[in-house]
Amino acid sequence: MLTIKSIRETNPVILNVANMVTPQHVADAINFYGGSPIMFTDEREAAGLTNISSGVVFNMGSTNEATLRNVIASGKVANKRGIPVVIDPVAIGATELRQDNFARAAEAVAFDVIRGNAGEIAYLANVNWQANGIDAGNGDGDVVAIAKKAAHRYHCWVVLSGVKDIVTDGETTYCVDNGHPYFQTNVGSGDMLDGILATAIATEHGLKALVRATATFSIAGELAGEKYPNQPASFFVELYNQLATITDEVIDTRMKIHQV
């Protein structure tokens, strides 16, 4: 079973093609959770940095040709070496450019994990959903069915973030009931979870590791919210404190998951 102790003992190096808005948030989350983050923006060092990494994260929130080249160059090396790949299709329903870039990335790189909100995963599952930029938006679909459909389509694990998080391989599916509303208030929370997930499966490659990592991040949010119930900015800082100090005993006690 994945443990905080094993993550911190392993201290996996996690390489990131980051969204221009949140690289510091992501680096701090990975570091406090127990990994070692690296960001890169130059395709010329993609192979070298991927080769020393234990996991990679591709955030498609700052879409441009250079970012796509970085994703493909690093992803090909990661696939060849068996290094797990996490991708976040940020606001993919918003523009054709984001859709085309994700499609080009998916054609060149096999993903281990796709992490997104309901609107993003619904787009990938070809389900109608009224997404609104980076926000999940609204839809009538069954989020469990949507996550499973996306997992089958891309042959990977899917983590659908929301009030309740869905983690699935298309066959076995878990619901994580932990969390806090301030995750939606603070931009970058999902990007931080991307890094947490990569750190987890770089340590132990499996669906249950993703479930526990998702729950751990959500529990850290619950604890931060208990300390700052009416201060969303203070919540965000406290979230880092909780990630840095959370124990497996606390996770085991507070974790609310069930198979669906």
From TrEMBL:
Residues that, per the record, bind ATP: R115, S161
UniProt: substrate binding residues? M39, G188
Q: Hey, which family's this protein in?
A: Belongs to the Thz kinase family.
UniProt cross-references to InterPro entries, sorted A to Z: Hyethyz_kinase, Ribokinase-like
Q: Which SUPFAM superfamilies match?
A: Ribokinase-like (SSF53613)
Q: Which cofactor does it need?
A: Mg(2+)
Output one GO MF annotation.
Answer: hydroxyethylthiazole kinase activity
Protein name as catalogued: Hydroxyethylthiazole kinase
Catalytic activity field: 5-(2-hydroxyethyl)-4-methylthiazole + ATP = 4-methyl-5-(2-phosphooxyethyl)-thiazole + ADP + H(+)
Record key words, sorted: ATP-binding, Kinase, Magnesium, Metal-binding, Nucleotide-binding, Thiamine biosynthesis, Transferase
Report the source organism. Answer: Nicoliella lavandulae
EC number, UniProt record: 2.7.1.50
